[in-house]
Amino acid sequence: MKAVLFLLCAGAWLLLSLGHTISEQHCRVALNQFSDMSFDEIKRKYLWSEPQNCSATKSNYFRGTGPYPTSVDWRKKGNFVSPVKNQGACGSCWTFSTTGALESAVAIASGKMLSLGLMCAPPFHRGLPSQAFEYILYNKGIMGEDTYPYQGKDGHCRFQPQKAIAFVKDVVNITLNDEEAMVEAVALYNPVSFAFEVTEDFISYQSGIYSSTSCHKTPDKVNHAVLAVGYGVQNGVPYWIVKNSWGTAWGQDGYFLIERGKNMCGLAACASFPIPQV
Predict the structure, then answer these.
(1) Which of 120, 119, 90, 84 is nearest to 104 (CA)?
(2) What's an example of a GO molecular-function annotation for this chain (predicted)?
(3) pLDDT tens digits for 140-181?
(4) Annotated catalytic residue 93
(5) Active site residue 244
C-alpha cells in the first residue's frame, strides 16, 4: 500500500513541479518525509486534527503609521532565533510556535538564548499560541528543555514551578487580518507566532515563495502554527520568512517563504507574540 501511495504522490509531485497546483509564484517542490503519506494521514499526525477558530481572540495591539524597513530577518540580527526543531508525528505545532516566539523574545530582551521545554498545557492541547502564552503567564513560567524534554506524544503534565526559566509578562494579540500590524511587530519588536491553513499543495514545498488558491483566508480554517522571523521582497513579490517545526530536512532548512500582504491561507487571522518578563 505504501509503495502504491508513494507512486501516486510521486505523480502528484511531478504535477506540482510543473505548476499545476501551486500558483504562479516562484515555488519549488520536492519529495520529502511526507511523500509516502496521504494528506489525511498528514493532517491526523502533523496538523491540528480539527481546525481552530481564532475569530474570538481579542486584539490589544495598536500599530503606528510606519514606515518600516523593506526587509527584516531576525536570524541575521544576532542569536535571536533558536534552531529548527521537529515535532514528529504529533499535532504539537502550536507549542513549537509558542516556545520559539518566547525564546526569541527573551533573547532579544536579555541577550540570552534559552532552549525551552515543550508546552505543558493540558487545557490547550492543539490550541492557539495566544492561548499558550496566556497559560505560561498564569502558570508562572515554563521549564527548560533540559528539565522538560520533548516526548512527541500526549502525556501527564510534570511542570515544576521552581524549575521555570522563562516567564511571560503580557500577551499581544494582533488585530484580525491586520497583516500590516504583523509587519510592524516583526520589524520593531520580535518574531510573531501565527496560524494558517495547510492544504495538500504545501506539503511538498522545497523553496521559493509559497502561494496557493486552494486554501481559505478565514479565521475558522487554520490548522498549523508557525513563527514569522522576518519578511522581504523577491522579484516584486513580498513574503514572510517562516520557521516551521518539521525538521531541517523539510523546506529551506526547516523554513519556508509565503506570500505577504494577501492574508495568504488566513495567516493574519490569529497572530500574537509574548512580552517576556526578564
Answers:
(1) 84
(2) cysteine-type peptidase activity
(3) 999 998 877 776 555 566 778 899 999 999 999 999 999 999
(4) yes
(5) yes
